[in-house]
Amino acid sequence: MTLSTFNPLAALRRTQSEKGNAPAPGERELLDVCALPVDAALAKMSTTDKGLDAARVAERRATFGLNEVAKRKKLGFIGEILQRCKNPLVLQLFVISGVSYAMGDLRSAIVVSVMIVLSVFLGYYQETRSSKAVEKLRAMVQTTCTVWRDGKEAEIPMNELVPGDIVILTAGSIIPGDLRLIFAKDFFVSQSALTGESMPLEKSITAGSTSASVALDLPNACFQGSNVLSGAARGLVVNTGVNTYFGTICEKLSSQRTLTSFDKGVNAFTWLMIRFMVVMVAIVFVIIGLTKHNWLEALLFGLAIAVGLTPEMLPMIVTVNLSKGALAMSRKKVIVKRLNSIQNFGAMNILCTDKTGTLTQDKVVLERYVDVTNRESEDVLRYAYMNSHYQTGLRNLLDNAILAHTDLDVERTCRKVDEIPFDFSRRRMSVIIDYEGDHVLICKGAVEEIFSVCDRYQVDDEIHPLIDMLKNDLMEEFQSLSADGYRVLAVAYREYPQSKEVFAASDEKDLVLLGYIAFFDPPKESAGTALEILRKSGVSTKILTGDNALVSQKVCKDVGLMIDGLVTGNQLVELSDQDLSALAEKTTVFARLSPSQKEQIIHALQRNGHVVGFMGDGINDAAAMKAADVGISVDTAVDVAKESADIILLEKSLLVLEDGIMEGRKVFGNIIKYIKMGASSNFGNMFSMVGSAYLLPFLAMAPIQILVNNLLYDFSQLGIPTDIVDEEYLLKPRRWNISSIKKFMLCVGWTSSVFDYTTFLLMLYVFHCIKYNDPNTTGDMKTYYENLFHTGWFVESLLTQTLIVHIIRTNKIPFLQSHASTALTLTTLSVMACAIAIPFSPLANSLGMVALPKLFWPWMAVTIVLYVILTHNVKTWFIKKYGVD
Fold it and tell me: Which entry of 165, 186, 354, 507 is annotated as an active-site residue?
């Protein structure tokens, strides 16, 4: 569900207004629990701070169900069929079938009904089968949460959470339900998914007012769908599933679906064809009515033309292509969470990514731990270890590298007094422990930020003032290490009296600098190859990282990424949107970025007309992923990153990403094939209909023959989702271009009309159908000549437009340079065989056809060869003039 274009808070408050401002039952429960002290709140929910036991969990799951918000309701077989019948293309066929039946044309009504069944039921079958497979793939990427149960910490799937559970929350966690905090330390959350407000909110355990009427205003309540930015907390779950605030919103939105650019492209084509059909049908109806003076016949013929111009298989072709693409991508370790994102994936022409884990091996090794004199120091490593050991926030790769030193002689059983969590403005974090009679604040973080709060330094047991000259020397050493690709953190400390128990960021001052620790994350051997493949595929790569510029520059150099510009976050401050868009266009590497700056750069690139993907795995990447046209994450990412993503990679590699991009382009390529085939072929046939309506003494083809012709042609294209896409088509991103489709339809469509008119002449003057107008021709002979003409054009029309599938499906020379898939070859050959066989079959009489003369077939062979040559040349001219889209 996409909430980006909807204000959930406003929707919920409107709903409450409609109900007399009365809080929903779930909200009332949350208000009551949040108004109580912690112990009373636990008692009210019949739980303890150690969590629920297994028996109570099972009991509550039976009562409250799974922790899942309202999804689009599964309508069942009948509901799904009715939903598909609402498609404008299908509704159009229903109207035509109904009118045909009302006018006594039962055969036409039956054929149109068969088309409806083929489109609706085949689409339902294919999508149901594919959806089940895709759901299994999505289950591979599961969001979890950490809870206390039976006095033990356990990680469970989020949908197994029940009211009364005690949830453990750290930076990067998604709030799994509506809950009342029972412990919180420097705890900041983002509620933008609910309120649209981007500013973080600090939460505490302070009891809310008993008179509060809006739960969102409570300081001790957190809500499902929001996420933790920093700090640590434990929460008592009050509401889950549809009873949560987010669940209430989703119930209201579950029937609404925000259109993606892919949906808009399909709709634009659909309405283009509908408008074109209305104009053509009106013209044909008037011409036949005025020339033949039979308005009933004119109406039936017009309805048949309407069917001929209707791409009724489009919904099914689109669904099967997307589902097939998702399954193919899964085999290449790419899981698609939102099917329609496949098109954006293939259309992406700029990939923005962090460097860690994509350009580097994501295996950080602690290389150096030295004091300010550049001598190895166990004290520096020991203090860094205690900082990482005692923190409760989200441990990153650097922390893991430090904690890997398990043989270190360090005190691991100290009493932790307090913690000042990391945030992206301070870029440091501190823990305070009770150590040998003092409360020691140990601070670790970015070098510049640590230096800014230090006024002394320590060497061995001696402490000296940190003068500017020494700071400058240390900064030079730091820059030298960074230029060599090292990630450097500084370590500092300060002792406080035992009487001080509560600490805040303001206490990070007058610290003693111990030294620094340097890490190395080697570049991936495959990164350079992957970047070159992406570049050749028309995807340029930009690095958006929170790391410093020198490290970023070194890594980019090692993997062969050409740097056309390097900008830091400080340089982006106060830039106008216009200036930022210009800067984003020409810059390759952005360093020292905040999460909001990453999002701003994404928007700047989009304003420049790019389709932008963002690949990330951290909490600081979530906003950028939501802003991007396609958000990409990995299955090892933090929860909020996985929830924000459209695409999940099972392997954090740009090579895997490239495979997924190619599959996305294949899917879109096959959809465009169907659209171009149907649009150009139908246009050509209907253009011939208009001329024949004026020139011929009888209808060029009976309505029932037009319908059967169109039905068989639709069947011939069922193999398109399996077709092979030319490698040349995959070399660059592809986007919807309705203007190009319209031009293609007009340029290529007329070629079929050329041979339609030559067939008209063939049937009239070679096979004597012109005798229809001879006064000596009797009624039976008139019927024979009319049916002979109908049969000849039916066969020519079906053979040529079916064969032309192979011309349009590729930009190369068909059959010689590019071959269709086996399935598409079989469906087209089968239909061409039917076209030849029908005039000689028992069906011929009921369809108003007669056997064709032997001389007809050599003429037809020549017609087909010339048609293929002309259409291929026109297609080639079109590509040279307008390009490939």
Answer: 354
